[in-house]
Each structure stands twice: as C-alpha cells, then as structure tokens.
Automatic annotation (TrEMBL):
SUPFAM superfamilies: TRAF domain-like. This is TNF receptor-associated factor 1. PROSITE patterns: MATH. It comes from the Eukaryota. One of its GO terms (molecular function) is tumor necrosis factor receptor binding. It holds the Pfam family TRAF_BIRC3_bd. Adapter molecule that regulates the activation of NF-kappa-B and JNK. Plays a role in the regulation of cell survival and apoptosis. The heterotrimer formed by TRAF1 and TRAF2 is part of a E3 ubiquitin-protein ligase complex that promotes ubiquitination of target proteins, such as MAP3K14. The TRAF1/TRAF2 complex recruits the antiapoptotic E3 protein-ubiquitin ligases BIRC2 and BIRC3 to TNFRSF1B/TNFR2. Residues 127-273 form the MATH domain. The gene is Traf1. It comes from Anhinga rufa. GO terms for cellular component: cytoplasmic side of plasma membrane. One of its GO terms (biological process) is regulation of canonical NF-kappaB signal transduction. InterPro entries: MATH/TRAF_dom, TRAF-like, TRAF1-6_MATH_dom, TRAF1_MATH, TRAF_BIRC3-bd. Keywords: Apoptosis, Coiled coil, Isopeptide bond, Phosphoprotein, Ubl conjugation.
Length: 276
C-alpha cells in the first residue's frame, strides 16, 4: 500500500508486532535448547549461558515495550473518549448557537414589524382626510408599465379614532378600462379593530383629489358607495376588493408640462371621506 497506509498500520499494530516478537524469541529459545540437546553437550556451556542471558534480556525488553504499548493504548482510548465528549459538547454548543440565531432573527423580524407599525401610525390620520405623498414617480410609473410593481397601496387611515380603517390603491399606468391610458385610483375598506361596533355596509361619500402643486387646477372625482357591492361590506379578509375610478386622470395630462401634478418627481393624492 501507500506510505501513509504503512505508517498507519505501524501505529495501530505495535502491540500485535510486540507479541509476535515475543513469540518468535520463545520459539528461538526452544530451538536453541533443542539444538543443545541434540549436540549432546558439544556446544560449550559458557556459550549456552551467554545465549540464555541474551534471550532473557530480549524477553525483558519486549515485556517492557509491551507494557508501554498497553499504556499507550489506554491513553489513546482515553483520548478518544475525551474527543467524543468534546465533540458532543461542540455539537451542543452549535445547537445553542443555532437556537440563539433563530431567536435573533425572530427579534429582528419583530423589530422590523414594530418599526413599520410606528411608521404607519405616524402617517395615519383619524379624521377621514388623508394626504398621500408619492415620491420617485418616474421610476414607479415605469415599474407599473413593465409590470414589476403594478399598483401601490397607501398607509392605512381612519374615518375617526375608532372608525373605519381604509387605504388608497393607485395604478400609475392604469387598471381595467384605464390600463395604459389613465391613472386609476381606488378606495379600499380594510379590516379594523372596531368593525364589530360600526354600521355596515360602509356608506360614506368618498372624494379623490390630485393636487396641482401650482394651486391652479386640482383634479377632483367623487363617488358614493354601492351598498350592494362586496367592496363595502364588513371585511372578512385583511382588505376588501378595491373600488373607485379606473379612469381618474389621463396619463397625458399627468405628464403634461402645462400642469404641476408631478413636481420634483413627486405627486400628492388627497382623499376626503364625508363623515357627517
């Protein structure tokens, strides 16, 4: 085999080799004694005694070496046991680290969710009037055209402190009958914490405005809810189906230099819910 395999064999079979050597010495001793008897005393006694002494020395050396090998084997066994214990400790620590990592990930997700909730609560209004500032209009319009992000949702807002929870949904490149030609703007009734105490269906008049930032010609549209529509019943899911104005504003007018609906790549949408 290879040199590495030979070295490995030498390490693992030292004890066996020592036993073979001891057996070989005993066989040698027996053969010498047999030879001496066969020679009928022709070998001088002094030479026999010398060989006998040499054999004893070899036997002692082998016995000592054999004890050392046994001691080494015991130490190796102890090291192996300790190594197994260490491996078990390492595996336990790895599991603890994985658990800590999972806990940190959960806490990060919780903090992120809390941060979003704080942002939404800062942006929310509680009087039925909401002003939505949309930045990066050029990029978001392009994303709507390519289908990367077809629509945008506003933060949630409320008709009153304990009122209806609602939001806006805008398709900058249009939806339905307005797709590709108009900005489509919709109203969404959301599931709120106080729905059980509110009258249903939702029946308040909704007014949309796109603000001209030169304060000349705001775009205004309004509608009253269709009380038979599922969009205005008490929500079962997080959001009802959006309802509103698929042809709210022609895209040509949005991008026209005559108006200031988009200024510094920013537009403002306003929603007013009649709460009387």
């Amino acid at each position: 085999g290879s040199k590495e395999k030979i070295k490995e064999h030498e390490k693992t079979a030292v004890g066996a080799h020592m036993l073979l050597l001891l057996q070989h010495i005993k066989q040698l001793k027996a053969s010498l004694c047999a030879a001496a008897k066969a020679a009928n005393g022709s070998i001088p006694q002094s030479e026999l005694n010398l060989n006998e002494n040499k054999l004893h020395v070899f036997e002692n050396i082998v016995a000592v070496l054999n004890k050392e090998v046994e001691t080494s084997n015991l130490e190796i066994t102890a090291f192996r046991r300790q190594s197994e214990l260490d491996q078990n400790i390492i595996r336990g620590l790895e599991l603890k680290i994985a658990e800590l990592h999972r806990c940190l990930t959960q806490k990060d997700a919780g903090l992120s969710s809390l941060h979003k909730s704080l942002l939404f609560s800062e942006q929310a209004s509680y009087d039925g009037v909401f002003l939505w500032k949309i930045t990066d209009v050029g990029r978001k319009l392009q994303d709507s055209v390519t289908g990367r992000t077809v629509s945008l949702y506003s933060p949630a807002f409320y008709t009153a402190k304990y009122g209806y929870k609602v939001c806006l949904r805008v398709y900058l490149n249009g939806d339905g009958t307005g797709k590709g030609t108009h900005v489509s703007l919709f109203f969404v009734v959301m599931r709120g914490d106080y729905d059980a105490l509110l009258p249903w269906p939702f029946r308040h008049k909704v007014t949309f405005m796109l603000l001209d930032q030169n304060n000349r010609e705001h775009i205004i549209d309004a509608f009253r809810p269709d009380l038979t529509s599922a969009s205005f019943q008490r929500p079962v899911n997080d959001m009802n189906v959006a309802s509103g104005c698929p042809m709210f504003l022609p895209l040509s007018k949005l991008q026209s230099p005559k108006y200031a609906y988009v200024k510094e790549d920013t537009l403002f949408l306003k929603c007013i819910i009649e709460t009387n």
